[in-house]
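Input (structure):
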């Protein structure tokens, strides 16, 4: 069973803040390419959990291709 995110709104807000931080680190040149990839991969996985959660995305109930 997939992990459920308890507070989707907070999760989305948190991702916005993380992207702002990541953007600043890229501009400052204080982050390696590997760190960028690792962070983006983690954020992608967390956002997929949100998208695949029918309590967050009610359209999934109508989507025959949803897993």
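Output (sequence):
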């Amino acid at each position: 069973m997939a992990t459920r995110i308890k507070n989707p709104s907070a999760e989305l807000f948190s991702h916005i803040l993380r992207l702002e931080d990541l953007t600043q680190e890229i501009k400052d040149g204080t982050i390696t390419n590997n760190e960028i990839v690792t962070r983006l991969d983690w954020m992608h996985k967390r956002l997929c959990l949100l998208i695949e959660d029918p309590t967050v995305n009610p359209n999934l109930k109508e989507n025959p291709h949803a897993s």
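Notes: The chain is about 60% helix and 0% strand. The two ends are 12 Å apart (CA to CA).
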